[in-house]
Amino acid sequence: MNRHRVDSRGSLGPDDEVMPYSDDETDDELEVSSEEEQEEESRDPQPPEEARPSEMGWKVKANDRPYHQLPEFKKKVFLCFKKSRYSGNEIKTYKYNVLTFLPLNLYEQFKRVANLYFLALLILQIIPDISTLPWYTTLIPLVVVLGVTAIKDLVDDLARHRMDKEINNRKCEVLLDGAFQESRWRNIQVGDVVRLKKNDFIPADILLLSSSNPNSLTYVETAELDGETNLKFKLGLRVTDEELQEVRQLAEFNALIECEEPNNRLDKFVGTMRWDGGHYPLGLDNMLLRGCTIRNTEVCQGLVIFAGADTKIMRNSGKTRFKRTKIDELMNYMVYTIFVLLILVAAGLAIGHSFWYQEIGMKAWYLFDGKDRSSSYRGFLSFWGYIIVLNTMVPISLYVSVEVIRLGQSKFINWDLQMYYAEKDTPAKARTTTLNEQLGQIEYIFSDKTGTLTQNVMQFKKCTIAGHSYGDPTTAEGVVLDRGRPVDWSWNRQADKKFDFRDHSLVARVRSGKDKDANEFFKLLSLCHTVMVEHKDGDLVYQAASPDEGALVTAARNFGYVFLSRTQDTITIREMEQEKTYEMLALLDFNSDRKRMSIILRFPDGRIRLYCKGADTVIYERLSPNSRHKETTQSHLDVFANATLRTLCLSYKDISTAEYEAWSQKHTEAQLVMADRDAVLDRVYEQIESDLMLIGATAIEDKLQDGVPETIATLAKADIKIWVLTGDKKETAENIGYACSLLTDEMQIHYGEDVNEKLRLRQANRRNETQALRRGQKKPAEPFFPAPGKNALILTGGWLNEILYEKKKKRRRLRLRRLGRRVPPSNPQDGQPMDDWEKEMRQIDFVDMACECEAVICCRVTPKQKGNVVSLVKKYKKAVTLSIGDGANDVNMIKTADIGVGISGQEGMQAVMSSDYAFAQFRYLQRLLLVHGRWSYIRMCKFLRFFFFKNFAFTLVHFWYSFFNGYSSQVAYEDWFITLYNLAYSSLPVLLVGLLDQDVNDKLSLKFPKLYLPGQQGLLFNYKNFFISLFHGIFISLIIFFIPYGAFLQTMGQDGEAPTDYQSLAVVTASSLVFIVNLQMSLDTSYWTFVNCFAVLGSIAIYFGIMFDIHSAGIHVIFPSAFTFTGAASNALRQPYLWLTIILTVGISLLPVICIQFLHKSIWPSVGDKIQRNRKRYEMEMEEEERKKPPTFQRGGRSRRSAYAFSHSRGYADLISSGRSIRRRPAGRGGPQESIREVPQRAAENI
Fold first, then answer.
1. How many angstroms separate the CA atoms of 94 and 163, rounded?
2. Can you say where in the cell this protein is located (predicted)?
3. Which residues are catalytic?
4. Is residue 886 annotated as involved in ligand binding?
5. pLDDT by residue (tens digit) across 876-896?
6. Alpha-carbon distance 556 to 534, whole Å?
7. 869 and 842 in contact (C-beta within 8 Å)?
């Protein structure tokens, strides 16, 4: 697996270590950035450059509200109406208000074709010549459906109103009329000066002017913005800090800010402040962004730059996409199919009526209605009459029933105690009610890494010092144990008692003071960092720029080297109970290019020493030839990396005073460079970070969340593919892939250069084909990996852009053009797409290649790239996708995927607020999909199949009856039965099956992931199932009509009366239908409860109760025109042979279904049928397995290259070196001088 990586600096390939570009990067910025890339190294400082005025399109005048209403700042809204381009600070996420709720909600509901159709029916029923049913048979169900949906929408919107009101009415102090006055957030405007206090939320994007801390230092917590929990610092300009402390000074502040337009880039802000004739550059460090919280700062003042919808957090929230399930789309197509069938049937019956009237109706004097109408006109009226009569083929209550089922399924997810995380008191939360059944059809999962697969908690596990490895359970004498006990830290009063370490021998060596290497190792960890420290209640609280650094400093603290405090130019530590202060001469901070950080210190005895820590690759390149233990340390690094630990090498270098002074001069000059300062500083740093002496290396565990490997293995058995999309380093992501069993030793790993080459060859082959063949139909492409075995892809963001022809390609072409090495783009060998079709084919090739692999890991990718990868799979594979993440950088892919899941853990709540489902641990995903998702899919499919069946069986009786009534649109049932059939007589049993049914229990669902496959393949609800339901309904309607019809021919009642009238036939057919539908539902129910039983029997009882009431004489007297079946039920149902007719009808209807189900389960059983048959045996086996504890997951595997995994963003070096920390330099600290002797550089040896 050891692969040579091309150095990005020396080649034209992408750099694996950097994010390729920001989301809002424009072509102009690409042009600028490419011109800024310096191919040749220049060590001379560059003269300062001024920002181009054209880049600044946003102007803000302090304390001047009328300025922002000037005509030049107006934008056209509609026709001649204009408004200010500056947004107010009020946010609106609600959809309705008091005036717009009714019209807007009705408009949205009538966008559903079914609702519009029933409204048209209602209008038709008002026309006397057409109406065959009373208007209330359509109005009552329509009002119920519209009312239930409207109430649901109203409740949702009221919640949004409350949230908006709570946010907009938060209070803040605003400078008005020369004094700070309390104001609400919604009244804040651009250009206002506001005052914020400790723990206040920041109401807008604000330029920090001053604060109560020295040098206007302000701490903010950005968890809601970027998902990181560690504190960040912000700085005011020196000029505003010195001159804007008093209210009077702030009231007279009249600066003009010119800056970039509002955008979603959280990592960039560029602006200039013009005040009193001076120009002052502004950057992101000067900005307080909305969504953050003020911490550890009593008071700060700032100027509002962006408000409301213009703020970065609102711009970064992305477009909310309306998500619909596959079943929703299929259901709509089926409703359209029913519309077509309805029109065809109605047209056929209308034609039949025209012929019937021509041949029979005109000649029968007793049928004359006194209206002189032609047969064709009567057929036309009959067509509309049958549209009304057969309207129940399109089920009006379908949509509201689906919403009720989804709401119930969402509540089951919320109530699931097995998805409740007690440690954080966090239950699972279904934040949407419209996507539950889609959870049972997932094919691809896109997961973040940090905080999603891992805990984002770093723990110091092992280390190697001077060629000796430490960290395994060992006694103080060095005897290795199988299971050791944790070290007792009671000897160190400053130790973190939560720190777990089991190698007692290392503690003994450090405490003895005899091992100088071990002492120097932990001294380096306590000094070489950018951690800030606070003293709270007598305890030390470290604020680190990354969890890694915090873990290393905490380790040093427990081993007796306690970091106490720092000032601008000193660091104070306690070395084994002796307090010492070191003078900090320079701090060389970490960045993604350097992959290391260094600190230059003057010891109390006057010696100057450089400490450096960083990736093994960069440290080894800079080691002195005299450095010892290189090979041994490298072998230990390989062992650590094999155990998926994050490694870091430690080294030092003694520097003479003359050498330091010469370098310091260059350093000072580089710090004053305005253009490309970072690159100039990096070159200066390179000069001093050479000839290093190796001390050892650390190994930190980025702990996986509980159950991650088992969850991934289970989901893989369900044929769900998992892709990891992360902004972390490639090596880190790869190691975590092995740790969580996503990658295995048997897999062949393919990296960016391999993938790009394979795609280039496929593209070249395609170009060699003729144009006609290329555009036409051709045979399926060959697989990219024909060799047997499993494959995996590991790509970086740079390679992803390279492969998919994104902006990075443009930057590369610009760079080539500047270097004079540009190949003409018309040449196919350039690798550029010749047209949009070729670019699309390249994307299809990439998706096909990735989908051939067992695992895909994309690292160093931007949030936009995460969303793009998800979009590609959705677009070209038509697959159902799920994205899961925990930070704001995951919001894009969460919104892009069909299902978005947020992890509510260490990070902020931005991902959770954008998600469809949220829970606290990754392992709950298998239960969400394999249990709740599968059950929801099965229930919804069964509900829809039966719902269509029962409506076909009910409606098509009118069709058969039409052959015996001259196609005259006469209904076969009583009007009130038609009205109440879907509302009361048949709705409850099918609704409960949609809510409660399950084929196997939750434990068996998790034990047999293959049960999930039918959902992925859409086997339980498709057009085949739809037509089966249609033909089943036709069969039942035939039996329901013709058996009673045959029974009524030439019959005589017991009392001499012949109940062969139309009303008696309607009662018998309706009673048979109610029995058949409810008993058929009983046959299809897999999971019986008391509620199901009550619903079936209750529906039948309700039918008879309501029917006898409606057919009673009393109600006929009150409403004679509405209730015309007086006494029909009591007259018909007292005849025994009519009850026998009902029993015969029900028996003949259900017997074939019972036989088919028996044969199907006996001869062609599904996986679920087999599991149900052996359920008892499987449950006993699971009980046995629970008694035996499963073995814990063991890390390890084949040896891999040691991975640099110092997940470290820019630290506090700027803050420390600028002297703007809270703690002032102490008057003086003393301590014994360091006992380690100075070693001449040329004859240096390891300590």
1. 9
2. Endomembrane system; Membrane
3. 448
4. yes
5. 988 999 999 887 678 788 888
6. 17
7. no
